[in-house]
Amino acid sequence: MIAKRHLLLLLAALVTAACDDTISGPSGTAPTSTTGTTSTPLAESFEATLSPGDSIFYSFTVSADGPATATLAAVVQPGRAAALATPLRIAFGTPVGEGCEISDAIDASPSLTPQLAATLSAGIHCVSIGDSGQLTSTVIASIRFVHH
Amino acid sequence: MPMRHVLAVLVPLLCVACGSDTPTSPTTSTSATTSVAPATIDESYNSTLPIAGSKFYSFPVVQNGTVNIALASLTGPGITEDMTVDLGLGRPSGFGCTPTSTVTVSTLTAAPQITGTYAPGVYCVRIADTTGILPATATFSISIEHS
User: Fold this and answer.
1) Taking the model in full, what pTM does it have?
2) B17 touches chain A (CB under 8 A)
3) SS3 breakdown of chain B: % helix, strand, coil, rounded to 5?
4) Which residues in chain B land under pLDDT 70?
5) Which of A91, B64, B78, B106 is deepest in the core (most CB within 10 A)?
6) In DSSP terms, which residues pair with B14 in a beta bridge?
7) Are A70 and A126 in contact (CB under 8 A)?
8) B41-146 belongs to which CATH class?
9) What local confidence, expressed as pLDDT, does residue A5 receive?
């Protein structure tokens, strides 16, 4: 009789456990959940040739709202390997008309770390690079930017 | 009760209790109707087009609606009204505009030369002398109507 009772308890427990739809995490860890979609940051880069007074922009698509950064990575003179410390104006904006309507901008010298940070909404944006008034000859600028 | 009877009752219960987890579709459905706004914003893109060159112009579509594009004028030394250029509508991308629709038109082509319904976002119109047919730099005007 005792054996039967134990068998019934065991089977009832099995039914309960088998029908528990709770999703559990890996053994020994708490379940995790996400409340929204996430996107992986995307890194892009381009080079631009700038003469004194020039600016140029590059359009890109942000797939989800999120932070974005831009780095003026290098400035060199055409045909020369030596890096220049010349500051240029880097900016985020939106393509409008024949240009990029600036929303965030900074004058920055080349660096290995981002000089400009902004929060961008999903949609088409542009990153602009231009002479901040200190160019005396044509240069080639390398820009790296990261966005969602 | 014999043990085999207990098992005979509980095993089917286990199967029945866990055998119907197949998701089912909702029994009610809704349908969304997207309205199409008329083109109420007029812009003119006036610039110059070099021989074998291209130019583009970006504009925002604020609400889902009609977009009409037309080459209004193309003038310059040696340029006749039947001379054609490519006109495209697309999205700004990289250093340019990537057209999703392109037509070859002259100012004699019935307007609008590009029309359609477009969702909110940033778009661009691109004009190009793809074949290098222009005898000289042209002055052009493009009409852009959007919502």
Assistant:
1) 0.76
2) yes
3) 10, 50, 40
4) 1-32
5) A91
6) none
7) no
8) mainly beta
9) 55
A vs B, Cβ pairs < 8 A, gives 64
How far B85 CA sits from the closest chain A CA (Å)?
19
- Is A97:B57 a contact under the CB 8 Å cutoff? yes
Mean pLDDT of chain A: 84
Flag whether residue B15 sits within 8 Å of chain A, measured between CB atoms.
Answer: no
For A143, left (φ over 0), alpha (ψ -120 to 50), or beta? Answer: beta
Between chains, do A58 and B95 touch, taking CB under 8 Å as contact? yes
Residue B94 touches partner A, C-beta closer than 8 Å: yes
- In tens, the pLDDT along A99-140 reads 999 999 999 999 999 999 999 999 999 999 999 999 999 999
Separation in Å, CA of A7 to nearest CA in chain B: 9
What does the pLDDT read at residue A141? 98
Is B6 an 8 Å CB contact of chain A?
yes
**A43 vs chain B: nearest CA distance in angstroms?**
14
What is the amino acid identity at position B99? P
Record the tokens describing residue A121, joined without a space: 């909404």
Whether residue B123 contacts residue B91, with contact meaning beta carbons closer than 8 Å, is answered with: yes
Query: What's residue B33's pLDDT?
Result: 75
B 33-72 near A (Cβ less than 8 A): 45, 47, 55-60
Strand partners, B133: none
Residue with tokens 């000089």: A115
Q: Domain extents for chain B?
A: 41-146
